[in-house]
Amino acid sequence: MRFRLLEWWRRWRETLRHRDARETEEELLFHLEMAELDAARRGEDVREARLRAGGVTHAAEAVRDQGSIRWLSDFLRDSRHGIRLLARSPLFTAAAIVSLTLGIGANTAIFSLIDTVILRTMPVQEPGRLVQFAGGRVLSYPLFRQFGQELHCFTGMFAQSSLGRRDIVFDEEPEAVKAEVVSGNYYSVIGVSAFAGRTFDPEMDRNPTPVAVISHAFWMRRFGLNPAAIGRTFRWNGRVFTIIGVTPPEFHGMTAGTLPEITLPLSMAGEILEDPAWLTSDSMSWLSVMGRLRPGYTIERAQTEVATIYSRVIRAQAEHSSGNEFNRQQILAQRMPLEASGNGFDSLRSRFAEPLRLLMGIVALILLIACANLANLLLGRATMRRREIAVRLAIGAGRGRILRQLLAEGMLLAIAAGGLGVLLAWWLSNALVVMMSNGGERIGLNLRPDVRILAFASAISAAACLLFSLAPAIQATRQGLQPALSEARLGARWHWGRGLIAAQVAISVLLVIAAGLFGRTLLGLYAIETGFHREDVTLISVKTDRAGVQGSTLRGQILESLRSMPGVASASFENAALSYKGSLYGTQVEGYTYEPNEDIHVQVNYIAEDYFGTLRTPVILGREFNDRDTATKAKVVVVNEAFARRYFQGRSPLGKWIEFKGPKRMEIVGMVKDIRPRSLREEIPAIVYVDAVQFNRPQSGVYIVRGTGIAGIVDSALKRVDRHLLATDVRTLDENLSRSILRERMLGTLAGLFGALSLILVSVGVYGVMAFQVARRQKEIGVRMALGARPLQVTGMVLAETAVPVGIGVALGLGGALGITRLAEKMLYGVAPTDPVTFAGASIILFFLGLLAAYVPSRRATRLSPVETLRCE
Amino acid sequence: MPNEQKASVLQGTLDLMVLQALASVGPMHGYAIGARIEQRSGGAIELNMGTLYPGLMRLEQRGFIRAQWDRTETNRRARYYSITAAGRSQLQTEKAEWARMTAIMQAMLEGDAG
User: Fold this and answer.
1) Residue A702 pairs with which residues in a beta bridge?
2) What local confidence, expressed as pLDDT, does residue A586 receive?
3) Minimum mean pLDDT among A168-182, A486-500, A628-642: which range?
4) CA distance A68 to chain B (A)
């Protein structure tokens, strides 16, 4: 066996090196010479001896066959032949490779995103046993602790919260890192162990320890994988933290794409966030919680246990808050449903899974069109080479041999396009990640091309190669069986060409309709009324931790400084709605009874004076806050229309009271128009606005400035207040909102792009088929024109012939679209999936484009003089 | 076609004959190997080039023999083949197998005759 393997290995080597042909010949000639000499010496017939020794050519052939692998050396020879042929028609080659590259590249790019976002599961142990609270419910720290102590259904239960981008200081300069806090048992519960150093332990929950775990990516980026990074310290709000470990490279955090760079213990949150309330208040719900089911427990059984404890918690809280008789029964009926969480707290997946699948379908269709074109081109070439092929078949070349040779040419194209396609895909998928990253910072997706991606690219290249080169190859070699010259076969080709036209047009109609629908969705979203004037409104995030003054005093100074700058019309401050999702407070409302499973949380936004004025949001009823609403006065709130719709069925909320799980009732004194703060698509949430001065909160938030040229004056305005102030993010509301319709932008842009691409490919396809068709009928056209047909009549005849397959294609495409677009209904906005304008538009575009592509060759035919045409036959 | 029958019989035993020739005589070029086999078989086996050289190539690829360009006594360039250690041990194995096989065949044929 060993020797057999050795033989095969040497055969491969021999094939690839392909030496010896001359040496073998020399050896064989020597043999002959010796045989002759021998015979002469013995006095025998020299010719007889030579005959006995056999022919040199035959022997050399036999040696070559033994020495190499037949099909491989044939393939190499075919490839060399193919390369020469392709090099001889560079235009054809370039066209073929470019269109195929686009198809393969687009497919591979979308696949690599799908692979990363959807297919790869979390690198944690038994993700199927992890459960979370359904609907993205977040818990307060006390509730998390209580669940952790009393629930028996979980072997472990951890909490996690992302802190977004924060500044830390390693040496002198602050640097922004993506940070999150997790409870001490996080790593042990999910089953991820340290790549280097160690991770947190449950002890840290009782014992706040200033340590940090960094991600592998951060380790690489910041420390160049230097092991000395473990033990390094950094400062956060003046507190010194020590790095104790690195997570494995394949671990992306619980959410694909969020990839926290630095993870800190949850028990440090009070200090990190400069407010101990994060860890003590039971009205601040901010923690995503997950548990690992104890063996033997089902999700339903765990559910029962959670419900028992939760109802006790609620009852205790309800009784604890004195004077809180209102809606007690309803609060007690609140539920904490569980759901499986194998995919993590995964917003990325849920947001992009559908669009990516849809795009995958679109690019697959593009690839089909490209293959059809290539098939057509190759068929044209095979037809041109029919004489060569016929001769070779006649002198006894095997049909399989010729088939293989034609396939080799296709395979060369596929290999070239596949290689280029992978490069294109790498670029394209990175561009898409930047797009998906919301224009903000890059989503930390690991997109390095791996074996799966390369396997995918090779597979589609091979499939494409078979698709576009097999059919023409079979067609071309079949001619040997038909002795009659090519008229019948050309007819067959016309048949096949018409089929191609119809199929391509049908697919393209589908893609153009998709482009139209997503384009209209995007336009519709841009036209939505946002409830405020968003031109010239700038959001500014400010890093304040090193400033001398803090709190509302600092806020007042910053606002004053901003307002005094040239170009600033007005300025205000808020903590939630425009920038990120603020705190959700469990809220009770006068006269409102919650349904048993209804969410009792309402979004609360702390705002400074002149907020509505700056956004130009109209106050519809009552008043906004004014100077008399001080900390000592009765607390009042302003609500939005959505709040009134939800709690008062649209009746006036003025004079009614609300309360947040606390003793103080607050009167509603005003109602403002709904604004769409972040997202153009999401439901407008019920919002309660409270006065930041009256509540003396919060610490963090965003400054809102109306005016022009704001980006240029922010720094000097801040420096005037305190030189330690630093603007960390400056962006206009327009940008903010564009980010919110990112999915639609992505779909709209890419669908448009791919739709246009399909139009180009289809034009090329129709042109190719019709040019051939016209060329083969040149004689007929010449005769007709000689007999007096006008050019217009000839053109009309060609166009009429084209119109049939194009029309069939359009009809097929429309039919397909009717069935398919319905599936994308959820991703559309303000346009029906069977929008007649889009459907009609796509049909018209393709019909006329098809005719236009046929018009060009038909004109050329009529321009030839009849005499010339007839002579050339 | 007697020639082809002869060749197919040869196919199985050619390796053994070449190895045996090289083991007993030492390095030889292809023609000498063929001549030696023809001579030892009393002229019963004539190898044409189309049989001999692919066989040599196969043995070389399996590592049983080694080929090297050298000069003949008359100072002609020729490819010389020599047996390798692996070739020797293969020869022993094959020989033993051949002897066993012949004994079996002998016994069988004689038994049937009697």
Assistant:
1) A541, A574
2) 76
3) A486-500
4) 10
CA distance A207 to A185: 13
Contacts of A130 (CB under 8 A, 6+ apart): A124, A190, A290, A291, A292, A293, A340, A341, A342
A67 contacts in chain B (CB < 8 Å): 57, 61
C-alpha A552/C-alpha A564 separation (Å) is 18
CA distance A703 to A77: 71
Chain A residue with CA closest to B70: the answer is A27
pLDDT at B23: 93
- A336 and A133 in contact (C-beta within 8 Å)? yes
Of the residues B53, B58, B72, B77, the best mutation for testing chain A's interface (the one with the most A CB atoms within 10 Å of its CB) is B53
Give me the residues paired with residue B29 across strands: B80
**CB neighbour list of residue A450: distance below 8 Å, 6 or more residues apart:** none
d(CA A651, CA A671): 11
Q: Read off the pLDDT of residues A334-359 as tens digits, 9 standing for 90 and up.
A: 667 787 765 554 555 666 777 888 88
Report which secondary-structure segment, H or E, holds B99. Answer: helix B85-113
Is A39 at the interface with chain B, CB within 8 A? no
Whether B94 contacts B13, CB under 8 Å? no
Q: If we measure between CA atoms, which residue out of A410, A549, A380 comes closest to residue A97?
A: A410
Q: Which residue of A has its CA nearest to B86?
A: A3
**Stretch A739-761: mean pLDDT, rounded?**
82
Nearest 10 degrees: CA dihedral of A19, A20, A25, A27?
A: 160
Q: What is the pLDDT of residue A474?
A: 75
Number of Cβ within 10 Å of residue A12's Cβ equals 13
Contact A67, A397 (CB under 8 A): no
Residue A323 pLDDT: 47
Alpha helices in A537-675, H assignment, sequence order: 551-563, 611-615, 641-648
Mutation target vs A (from B39, B57, B93, B94; most A CBs, 10 A cutoff): B57
Q: Which residues of B touch A63 (CB under 8 A)?
A: 53-54, 57
All structural domains of chain A with their residue ranges = 2-68, 127-342, 349-527+742-871, 545-724
Q: What element of type H or E holds B83?
A: strand B77-83
Contact call for A6 and B77, based on CB within 8 A? no
CA distance B13 to A781: 71
A467 vs A230, residue with greater confidence: A230
Instruction: Show residues of chain A in contact with B31, CB under 8 Å.
Output: 30-31, 34-35
Neighbours of A581 (CB within 10 A): 11
Distance from CA of B79 to the nearest CA of A (A): 7
Chain B touched by A65 (CB under 8 Å) = yes
Mean pLDDT of A502-509: 91
Residue A299 has what pLDDT?
85
Sort out which chain B residues have CB atoms less than 8 A from A56's CB and list them: 49
User: What gap in Å lies between CA A180 and CA A563, rounded to an integer?
Assistant: 34
8 Å CB contact between A381 and A469: no
Domain count, chain B: 1
**Residue range(s) defining the domain that contains residue B49:** 2-113
Question: Which residue in A817, A801, A796, A806 sits closest to A845, CA to CA?
Answer: A806
Which residues, at least 6 apart from A237, have a Cβ–Cβ distance to it below 8 Å?
Answer: A271, A272, A274, A545
Across the interface, whether the CB atoms of A24 and B53 are under 8 A apart is answered yes
A151–B contact, CB cutoff 8 A: no
DSSP, res A635: P
DSSP secondary structure of A420-477: HHHHHHHHHHHHHHHHHTTTSSPP-------HHHHHHHHHHHHHHHHHHHHHHHHHHH
Question: Number of CB pairs < 8 Å for A and B?
Answer: 75
Q: How many helices (H) and strands (E) does chain A have?
A: 30, 21
- pLDDT tens for each residue of A741-751: 777 777 888 88
